[in-house]
Amino acid sequence: MQASAACEPRNLTPDQAPRTATVTPIRAVSASSAARHGTPHCSTCSMRSVCMPPELSASELARLDTMICTTRPIKRGDTLYRAGDTFQSIYAVRAGSFKTAVMHRDGREHVTGFQIAGDTLGLDGVCAGKQNCDAIALEDSVVCIIPFAQLEAVCREMKPMQHHIYRKMSSEIARESSQMMLLGTMSAEQRLATFLLNLSKRFKVRGFSGSEFHLRMTREEIGCYLGMKLETVSRMFSKFHREHLVHANGKTIRIEDAEKLARI
Amino acid sequence: MQASAACEPRNLTPDQAPRTATVTPIRAVSASSAARHGTPHCSTCSMRSVCMPPELSASELARLDTMICTTRPIKRGDTLYRAGDTFQSIYAVRAGSFKTAVMHRDGREHVTGFQIAGDTLGLDGVCAGKQNCDAIALEDSVVCIIPFAQLEAVCREMKPMQHHIYRKMSSEIARESSQMMLLGTMSAEQRLATFLLNLSKRFKVRGFSGSEFHLRMTREEIGCYLGMKLETVSRMFSKFHREHLVHANGKTIRIEDAEKLARI
DNA sequence: CGGTTGTTTGAATCCGTTCAATACCTGTGG
DNA sequence: CCACAGGTATTGAACGGATTCAAACAACCG
User: What is the pTM of this model?
Assistant: First the structure.
């Protein structure tokens, strides 16, 4: 699996070297057979409340439906895009989940975020005109493709949409600030607790259970995200288990005492 | 000095408790005596190339001059805004420098960034409608006040300006991603090296010397930013000194061997 | 079913922190 | 102008949390 050995220096074995080989080319998307996957409609999407501003009129929603005309399925372990790819579109996760990761020159990887249904991907690519990180599917997933130039045009006309994009980007900045604080000031125990509570909250907002859920990522990926080794992640899970805070059976998580977890 | 004891649990002594007391209220800015400070003009500003998109016509610049009609001086140690303040404007640093810091509920502070002339402050406040962090002047400074609602209106009309703001926000997201990687994967030595090289680059872009400059922040603030203790920062400076990589005399820094520093 | 990948746990090690002592600036007031 | 104070910086020694190395186990998949 190409996404393995996260956080460790990657040996670019011959079959991995030609990066584009295993990646569906994003520029061919509108015409490719993989691209059209049903006909997506913002107006009827279950993630609309998470993904779009609430103040849109029916006619404005119809306008969006014409812009977001393609979705794209991504298989588990495949990349949606890679750092360095030409930036053209942002993506909304319609189903499934992703991780985004930046790579250090020494080959070590750092996971910058996990995205689940309703989240946005690729906003960090606007500045340089090319993608800033790798986006990799944690399970079989589907994204909506939103061509950024078209989105900009829409935003010049639809004030709520304009504001919504500013808010999305701003909240990504704020989220990363919190994550920087986590990485800069918290103990391993606090980091994992914060991570689990954050996931819980996001699942809840999306209508899933906040107390019991399934992790799509490995211990290693969690560690990469939280700035610690996979063994430490595992130890902390065991610790939470002993203290009856979290029941973790492999990737199935049940939060037993959210209050105590938050007070760590 | 109110900005002291960064990163340590702050004792909210009585004179600090009424937060607004020492802060110039931002809502009174347009009318206050402190606000008008000469008449700022983007068209003649030395930071324009850093601060504004390059493609603007003369008439478009004139338009901006009417929007950014106030500047505000901030004394060293004073706050430009605090977390929780109502968000109305973003700010461009015209002269001087700032730090932004988020606070954990246990009172520990984490520095999320240092901003020098040409940098933007406050973009993370859009999402919640209130400021997400504290912004504190590291020296006597001046900012341009940019009312965000007006900026949004301008962006709906001026395509280059619209794209510029998206780029600014996007690059802040990308910057924070790098910082997360730094905090998550690098040793103390690598962190400080990266920090110094980054500062050097930014000074250079702005026309200052990239090899010799003056730090405006304390060792403690650097430590808070890089996720380490001030003693460790000091030790790393000493180490670099011994290895003839950086000559640090208090806050005066001379980078002796940028290549080796980058290879750490 | 075997092989691969992912997880758990233990023991030894190490990097950065903590605690402490000292020295160095920088601005203020006598 | 100098002395003094408070914040800032440096350095050493002991400590501790997280990593590293290692081994065994569980889960998954072709």
Answer: 0.86
